[in-house]
Write a structure and sequence with these properties.
Layout: H1 3-13, H2 25-38, H3 40-49, H4 72-87, H5 93-110
Helix pairs in contact: 1-4, 2-4, 4-5
Length: 122
């Protein structure tokens, strides 16, 4: 999936069209790179599982026309929701909360384990 395809999927989730959501396009590349950085653990776990070398640093894209360097399930199922949340974070808190929750829920469906903080027993 390319950055453009992910951006259009995010617009669709926000009930926007490429014309009505043109304002958001200026933020899409930075937001996608932020999602890639935030997802480095999941990307590297998938790469290690597939026998590939993990990334030392988060991958980046320099244009929306590039393929997103992450596993297919992550960019198709999770990134559109994460991108939608980041695009409306300052404009619509209800849409942000909904999209961020969907992103997290979908991400957790694919994670083999969840890390939780150690709590002191009293």
């Amino acid at each position: 999936m390319t950055g453009t395809e992910c951006f259009r999927a995010a617009l669709n989730l926000l009930s926007e069209t490429p014309d009505s959501g043109a304002y958001y396009e200026q933020f899409a590349l930075g937001a996608l790179n932020q999602l890639l950085a935030n997802s480095l653990r999941e990307i590297n776990a998938e790469r290690a599982f597939g026998g590939e070398q993990p990334f030392a640093a988060p991958p980046r894209v320099s244009a929306l026309t590039e393929e997103l360097p992450a596993c297919d399930w992550l960019v198709r199922e999770c990134f559109p929701y994460g991108l939608a949340a980041l695009l409306v974070a300052d404009d619509d808190k209800d849409k942000f909360n909904w999209a961020a929750n969907e992103y997290t829920t979908r991400l957790l469906r694919h994670c083999p384990a969840q890390l939780t903080a150690i709590q002191e027993m009293l």
